[in-house]
Structure prediction request, 1186 residues.
Amino acid sequence: MTDAATTPRLQLTGITKAYPSVIANQDVSLTVLPGEIHAVLGENGAGKSTLMKIIYGAVKPDTGTIAWEGKAVAIANPARARRLGIGMVFQHFSLFETLTVADNIALALEKDRSGDDLPARIREVSTRYGLPLAPDRHIHTMSVGERQRVEIVRCLLQDPRLLIMDEPTSVLTPQAVEKLFETLRRLASEGCSILYISHKLDEIRALCHKATVLRGGKVTGTCDPRHESSTSLARMMIGSDLPHPQHRQAQIGADALVVRDLSLDADDPFGTALHNISLTVRVGEIVGIAGVSGNGQKELMAALSGERRVPDADRIMLLGQAVGRLDAAQRRALGFAFVPEERLGRGAVPEMSLADNALLTAHRQQLVSRGFVRHDAVRAYAVETIRAYGVKAGGPDAIARSLSGGNLQKFIVGREIRQHPKMMIAAQPTWGVDVGAAAQIRQALLDLRDSGVAVLVVSEELDELFEICDRLAVIARGRLSDAKAVSDTNAAEIGLLMSGSFIASGAEPHRPFSPAGMI
Amino acid sequence: MRLRLEPRPEPSRLAGWLSPIVATLAVLAIGLMLFSAMGKNPWEAMYVFFIEPIDTLYDIGELLLKASPIMLCAVGLAIGYRANVWNIGAEGQLIMGAIFGGGVALAFHGSTSWLVLPLMLVAGLLGGVLWAAIPAFLRTRFNANEILVSLMLVYVASFILSLLVHGAWRDPEGFNFPQSKMFDDNALLLNLLPETRLNVGFMIALAAVAMAWLFMRMSLVGYQMRVAGLAPAAANYAGISASRTVWLGMLIGGGSAGVAGVGEVAGPIGQLLPIVSPGYGFAAIIVAFVGRLHPVGIFFASLLMSLLYLGGEAAQMRLALPSSVTGLFQGTLLFFLLAADVFIHYRLRVIRTAPAVAKPA
Amino acid sequence: MDTVAQLLILTLAAGTPLVYAALGELVTEKAGVLNLGVEGMMLVGAVVSFIVAATTKSPWLGLAAGMAAGAALSLIFAFVTLTLQANQVASGLALSLFGIGLSAFIGLEYVSVVIEPIKALAVPGLSDLPVVGKMLFGHSPLVYLSIVLFVLIQWFLFHSRAGLILRAVGESPQSAHAIGYPVIRIRYLAVMFGGACAGIAGAYLSLVYNPSWTEGMTAGRGWIALALVVFATWKPWRVLAGAYLFGGVTLAQFQAQGLGVDIPSQYLSMLPYIATIVVLAVISRDATAIRLNAPASLGKSFHPYG
Prediction:
């Protein structure tokens, strides 16, 4: 089907885009043929997203040309891109939570295509492609996977000739990924080209006809991924082999964190309630929680960290103490540490220096005396954290916001570990982090476990969980499955649990919040 | 070619300190234009407005006297603003301070004890704290917006003051004017500088500036309030109590405004009147911003604001210009400041016409 | 029965400036912009409309001028917050303080001027009908206009495509930008609409409700209007209901005096402010209602960098 004689659907030549602090794309060229599923492969920060935004008209390139079906075009804005026939499914969805599916789709369509028959067309198209949707549902009542369907159907209703998918599988269970691939293959067979952005090598090998590999904003190669191994792809992507962390035999000790039958209503109408969560993390082991985001991870983390308190104190036992009603600071004083999912704005104050950010949680490390901050000690703590964890930063006075995701995450992880916790929780510890930093962070968590600390890791990356965890549990719809030893399970089984297979039928439906009674 | 704002990698400290100066210069420029538009000699008007009010020792005393309540209110408010606690009711808290402090002065009328004045100051502090506690309570307990509540309470406080001076506290020998008895000498702040009206209130204001600096820069609690203002989720993550932040932010602002209120009635006014402040509590909002929410900056900004008040009075007497020009300048100053602040986080970049399709190969 | 008619007329008259100001602010906030400058815009609207009415002898021209003045003032706010990315809370406060100063300054020579007010509509025949005549036909044209405005806004927000876009911008400017809407331009329009409405609200005070100009004559109504939007949980019909409720509270002082209740006027003057505080506390307790109805991006800056 990749007939060389056909005119390319899209041809980029010499695209360059520089930002004040970084060159996102440098002399990037790329050709996509009709009906081709074309992978753009690269690790976090390689410039994939910028390139896609350029194609979609959301970002203007500094230099370079774009040819659409053989003709040079200037894509000034997303509306122009859509008129050309380019659709995009964003990694961070561009949906409006308080609006209905139909309203969300109408907003992205031209006025003349969003008439009264829109709901019927939504039903028709969504069923045809195996992505069923109810047009009158509100987005905030839907799971992440369902939201992605809205994004895809929204694109399909515009009869796209090029569909851009930005990291679409990070929000899906392995089974749902398979279904998505079927949909994409079907679209491609109908002649639609697909640009598939990912850093997951297996997926690309399974799905794509061609791959363009980006590293540091430049194209480092093109290939047919069906004829490559994961190792060879990885080498093109990061310039070396994928690092693997060192694993030692677990030395299991006493229970450090025991959660018993914890139920908690969502404090946000768009949140997820927790139901009967039980979990034990012992000294010297890493327990992982897998699951598709939005299934209660955020709420569980808040309850465990003390950001949200629990009425029954003994639902959460930390090192033998009932801590449910203690706040985050009190739990920290007992030897608890936490690396949150959002780095900027939660794990660190974006506008503050690294030194001030060290003080955020580490002030118990003799950084304060009689209520007054010992600025020298604070600086020393920051300097030592930067050194010990290889944080690339302009020193302790660098503003947190100015660091790359990986470096800031290393700083936060270092800041928490250096407080000598007895129990550590890390949520999405390597999300959006480059491969080198991710490996370093995973190794730091493993070393922590080996030094006799209980570690709990929440992640959407199954590979990561299988790599570092001793036991795995799955969270779905606010419920937690029993934890299994990693050696006794596999990705397929965990994937099934992620879709909620362990929840007894008859349990409450997903996100039971209803706006009725509000008026 | 066009201009575009582009985020800076790190906020510019230089731009932060330059923007009040730019804003002040812009207000002066507007003043020049305004005065000439009104048919005055602009340079003479500027002289009358900005130089004459401070060309004698007495005048300097007046400048510092007026700057004191503004400074007090503004350092208190700034602590709250840093923590994202928007108390805009300092005017009401100032009035409450005046009522409480003045109430003590009237209750001990005739006493010669030296304790009256300290008692008044404490009472004034409590009055301001109490008045600020209402929005703090409603915000922490019911999530009610403190901006609106604290502002509504300004009106309520002024009606309470009006009730008192028209009623229970009216001076029986005051020819039915709505005013209280004149306070005894032991209920008045000591003079600080002979030949002027400057009193120890100025020293209190300076002490407040120093304490505010110490609190915000050196104490853990001050640091934690800054965190709460910059990133509420980070504060929550670190276990910094959100309600403590609100309470502290409101009460510090209320307390200092309350003391400012006592300073007025125990200082230049010397009794309770239906109006005890020409809007110092509101001017302090502007001063807090112009002073970059920093105690030292606030010190200088309150001098500027005081000069605007004095200049307005002088312009009214000498040039028959309306004194409300002061209010106009105040508002303009804040606007120019906020506009100039854009350069703290952004820089201007000239974009040469760079089409998506460049140089066809 | 006549007193009931009278009371209704007075209540609507007292509530109408709040209807204008709060509906305008509601539209602004629906686009995600919090403009705390309503009080300032109302004052400038009041003084400008009064001056124009006094010089041209045409109150209607005055009304138009007041509306334009409110919009013009809001444009400053829009420029500072939307183009220059300044903090919306601080800029709104600045706008209020600026408006208070500006209105006092330009209105100085008009304090004791007398003008021809906008008169109540008298429909021959109908207004003279017993009971209902006065109730339905005895109001100022601006009262009817405010109800028309309410209907238009209700339709615009919830039944028009443009309204859907406006709500989308307020819900998530990032998403709206991503699918190609000009977020900043839409917000400019919403802010200016709010400014124009605040201008009319001010003009209503100085041309209809109390035909005169005095410094600070809005007496906090701009702030009460802001509270009303929260009270209404961003629903237009609740704004209308709330405005008339507050109109009724304002009347209490006149009524009490009329009934010969001997109580210092200050107590009654405090009532609207205290009522605002109480109502805010009661409504804000329900965090869920606020979360579901408040525009999610309210008060946050948005920079379409990229």
Q: What stands out?
A: Strands of chain B lie at 2-7, 346-351.
